[in-house]
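Why show two proteins at once? Because comparison is the fastest way to build intuition. When a single record is shown, students tend to memorize it. When two are placed side by side, the eye starts asking what differs. So, the first record is below.
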Amino acid sequence: LLALGVVTRRAPRPGAAPAHPRRAPPRPGPRPPAGGRARGPGFALVSIITVCERREAKGLDAHVPLILRVDALYDPDLDRFFLDLPLSGVRSRHSLRAYAYDVAVWLRFLDACGKTVWAATRDDVGAYHRARRRDEADHRITAATWNRAVASLDRLNR
């Protein structure tokens, strides 16, 4: 089954000191090709979809996450969804972050299926449920985590 791990990246704060000058050692294994698609063992090519937890903005908008595909905005309409969340009552930066990770895992699943967020069907949700809730015990998520993810996706599709 596709590993639905989470990768994060934070935008630097304006005027902040540069990150520690020592870089982390490179990860072993092949790097993704220049097109930004990585091949998992036994899987077709999949995009690298990440969450950027901060954006260069002031106030609450600084905590509105971005979903990126290969360092570019995944979708302008999806970005508008995230920018509208504080206006519809989701103001906690922790809640905003949770929405972003729930949506990112969904996007990775859809990407592995060859679909986009706006082309997903009810059958895709069923397959996602099987992958997240009925997989082997070490990959299975709890009912509470599933319910939170579904609430995020429900709000996305309203």
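Second record. Ask yourself what differs from the first in the token line.
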Amino acid sequence: MSSIIMVLFFMVGYKVLTSVNLYTTMRADVIGKYLIEVGHWKTLVLRDFRGVGLDILSALGIAGFFWSLVFVTRGRGMGAGDISLGGLVGLVNGFPNNILAVFLGFVFGSIFSIPLVILGKKKMKDAIAFGPFLLAGSVFCLLYGNQV
């Protein structure tokens, strides 16, 4: 939970700092002063903060999806830690890469788990941690998400 708070703090703080830097840069230029007067700076700042809001909403959607999986399976299909990890992955990757990260987490988990079941090393009822696969999907999206 503390990592989610840190990421939120960073996201908002970064947008505030870049907005102040943009304002300072624009104030130093004649055309920039005009753009501030006509409201262009405000439009840019609102667009950036809407993006942060979309990232937060999509992260809440991912956490809600994982919560519903925990609720439906009564904790046997997925653990409560995956809820907060899903929210964190959602915030770090941002929309729409966070959805791809979750999808890839399920794909990576399947690629790893299905052969274990086929070979008899694991049974369908055995638990396999989902967190590493979710993190693998997240790292993949951080590195290659825009290309996908």
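One difference worth noting in the second protein: The two ends are 29 Å apart (CA to CA).
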